[in-house]
Amino acid sequence: MPSQNSATQHGQFSPAHIRATWSGTASVEEAAQAFGLSRSKSYDLVRRGEFPCRVLRIGRATRIVTASLLRVLESGEPEYNTVDTRHLTGS
User: How far apart are alpha carbons 28 and 46 in whole angstroms?
Assistant: First the structure.
């Protein structure tokens, strides 16, 4: 998980600003900026399933779940996409 710099914590990518201005999902580019990552590194992490927060694929579009991004920014703990198979096995 990349470290957050003060511009991320207090500027346009602070959790408070994101809550006030972003919708339910964000582009990979926006999320990359919030984490201080490059666009290409972010898309690489998405492809490998290692982007630090929840990723939605809607048709050909890839979107980042804003609530997940906020939780990761605030906790510093990644929240990778996981598949809950309990409902598939009847457990």
Answer: 9
User: 55-81 pLDDT, tens per residue?
Assistant: 999 899 999 999 999 999 999 999 987
Torsion of CA 42, 43, 44, 49, to 10 degrees: 90
Question: Both ends of the chain: CA-CA distance in Å?
Answer: 33
> How many Cβ atoms from other residues are within 10 Å of residue 22's Cβ?
18
SS3 at position 57:
strand
Structure token digits, residue 88: 């598939």
Confirm whether pTM is higher than 0.85.
no
What percent of the chain is helix, strand and coil (3-state, nearest 5)? 50, 15, 40
55: phi > 0 → left, psi -120 to 50 → alpha, else beta; which?
beta
- For the record, the structure tokens of 54 come out as 């929840």
